[in-house]
Amino acid sequence: MKRIDMNKKKKRESLLDSAFSLFINNGFHKTSISDIVEAAGVAKGTFYLYFKDKSDIRNHLISHKASLVFHNAYRSLTDSGITDFEEQVIFFIDHILNQFSEDRQLVLLLSKHLSWGMFKNFLSAAELKDSENILGIFHNLLSEAAYTYRNPEVMIYMIVELVSGTSYNSILYGQPLPLEQLKPYIYDTVRNIMKNERVKPAH
Amino acid sequence: MKRIDMNKKKKRESLLDSAFSLFINNGFHKTSISDIVEAAGVAKGTFYLYFKDKSDIRNHLISHKASLVFHNAYRSLTDSGITDFEEQVIFFIDHILNQFSEDRQLVLLLSKHLSWGMFKNFLSAAELKDSENILGIFHNLLSEAAYTYRNPEVMIYMIVELVSGTSYNSILYGQPLPLEQLKPYIYDTVRNIMKNERVKPAH
Amino acid sequence: MKRIDMNKKKKRESLLDSAFSLFINNGFHKTSISDIVEAAGVAKGTFYLYFKDKSDIRNHLISHKASLVFHNAYRSLTDSGITDFEEQVIFFIDHILNQFSEDRQLVLLLSKHLSWGMFKNFLSAAELKDSENILGIFHNLLSEAAYTYRNPEVMIYMIVELVSGTSYNSILYGQPLPLEQLKPYIYDTVRNIMKNERVKPAH
Amino acid sequence: MKRIDMNKKKKRESLLDSAFSLFINNGFHKTSISDIVEAAGVAKGTFYLYFKDKSDIRNHLISHKASLVFHNAYRSLTDSGITDFEEQVIFFIDHILNQFSEDRQLVLLLSKHLSWGMFKNFLSAAELKDSENILGIFHNLLSEAAYTYRNPEVMIYMIVELVSGTSYNSILYGQPLPLEQLKPYIYDTVRNIMKNERVKPAH
DNA sequence: AATGAATGAGTTTTCATTCAT
DNA sequence: GATGAATGAAAACTCATTCAT
Known about the structure:
4 copies of one chain form a homotetramer. By secondary structure, chain A is mostly helical. The first copy, chain A, has 2 domains: 1-51, Homeodomain-like (Arc Repressor Mutant, subunit A, Orthogonal Bundle), CATH 1.10.10.60; 55-201. Chain A is 74% helix and 3% strand. Chain A has helices at 3-26, 33-40, 44-50, 54-80, 85-102, 104-110, 116-123, 134-143, 152-173, 179-197; strands at 147-149, 198-201. Chain A has a two-stranded antiparallel ribbon with strand order 1-2. In chain A, helix 5 (85-102) runs parallel beside helix 9 (152-173). The first copy, chain A, starts with a helix and ends with a strand. Chains in contact: A-B, C-D. Chain A binds chain B through residues 29, 112, 115-117, 120, 150-151, 153-155, 157-158, 160-162, 164-166, 168-169, 173, 175-177, 182, 185-186, 188-189, 192-193, 196-197, and chain B through 29, 112, 115-117, 120, 150-151, 153-155, 157-158, 160-162, 164-166, 168-169, 175-177, 182, 185-186, 188-189, 192-193, 196-197. Chain B binds a DNA duplex through residues 4, 7-8, 11, 32-34, 37, 42-49, 53-54.
């Protein structure tokens, strides 16, 4: 990569880093583009060389950070050697929640976007390759599962909303319980949802 | 109530109505105080006689609208004569979801706020009397229940997050299923959560 | 008029005066709204209470200044007692050119707009009452004229374009002749145009 | 011409062509240098190798396009064999108006600049050789004319302003008459101006 | 209590111009 | 000659808030 391209990438990442930090600390709406460029140490016009507007840089941030989280979880899952589908789901969730609890800023950034709508519309298209696409992964795992399920899409929908909804307050405020104490309740419920949605053994 | 108080109340309600409609149609951040006062037909300064700022009027709106929803659900529940705790919970949820599906604007206003955090911090303090406080109601019902539960607060937390998370997309976009088709899945899961959290028969 | 309305009118006129002076001295495109409000001694937001944008204030200026010029010329014409149509036209033109040569700033403001298109589309609608509308005046005078003309609209069109085109350089730069020396040529030509377009005596 | 000069000329002309098209379609002030270089397919810095700024390229465009128009008209005039001065003037005007009515973009570009000031200050210096200089041509023709005229410079001034002023709206908007219908009025008037300015037969 | 004119800091966005490569 | 990333001044416009009436 040429020197100038290195520099370009550096500027872009400097903007992304600054925006991330400001969005987290002050909130999206209270962060101005002036704030971002000042923190990044670049001129105001430079922002517009890399991003269309404030929403654009947020979307890039979200898809970038989310893709990292899922990529990590998926790699660990592959390494883990777990073969049972339902245990794979639990492992995957656990890995993501652990990443979140170690980086609460991630939760703040992704919180309102980590919903089924994001998986469906956003992640599928954006920065993830097909094999890393969260729904694609899910369907791959599903095809190897020991059971078939009443409505897998609804099942994952309920799991996603339950997990993202319950983990948010727990990680950020320890309410109603700290994450480690809440996990057993969540995982019990997730297991129950899957068990309950089983139709019959596959094959 | 004196004539002047009537007038005062009228202005306040006009502001609330206008703000509601504008928040719903244009979004909170794209609605200015100028927009609100213009729609309400009052002068700009008048806004500040009744509300501190834009967030203040939103909070009043949310607590007001939410209190109506819960009040309706609770009254119907009382009228229903249902005595079994778990069926009371289902009835209560169903009543609220029906109100939401008949008034999608309510969902748009309350969506991001209809979470356990709202019940805990917001509703308990705001406009609801003690007997109408959602958590108070819940504990009253619970004390008459046939079972005791492992951790009732965590249980209601999971139910609230599951129901609010899953119903949002369903009501607004019919995704991944229209509400009426999604309900069986939700209620099954809610029943399972409660069943699974039972510790022993009370008494 | 109330004190507050006086004040409003004063602010508006202060903005118009400042804009006029800046447009003349620096040109429309090199004048910013910041310049205007600073010169007028009002806050930036105040500008937008009175005018939509920079073009808006320019249009108000043009129509205001033009209406003054025509109003003056028409009043003098009425006072003059001249009855012959062709002499009325000459008198009217002469009066306007005299106003311009005494206030070259007016020429700078109106120059590119003092065309037949302006009479047709702009002045007719804007600030002039019907009886002061330039085309209305023209047709009134025409109806009393001793002759009818081949195509009065084309005739006035040619006169307007000839007079406005030739007077501009003459007034501003004395080229190719100072106005007073150019006038005989212009008036000769205008008289010739009218004479040439005569069809027959009216009645 | 060397290959590199070809290339250089090509870039310059590409910039001129792009600027012409953008000025016509979007207007001078709404066209940015970025727009021009993008349309021309060259880098931003390249613009400044050929032109000083936006006004500079416009001036080059105007003088270039205008010189083409006059050159064409003059060549045709020479070919026509017309010897009478006043008919030469009419022929020359007619040829130019025909070019304009076949290329309305030319009118848009030249409109506000096709005035006597342009002939005097601009064209005489710029791209036209002496024998193609419009005023030079005029004086050459004049020296062969059958009459002398009161003030030939004022005469041409009036003709130029009359013709350019009246043709603009007619060509672009068909107002107050389409060009072909307006021409008789214009040419009548031009002939009258010349006839009226005759002093005596030459020689 | 009610008004609404006035404020001016703050925001987004554009764009001519430079200069290291 | 050619490039195009970077600049940052400057532009238009918004809007929550105040306060004299």
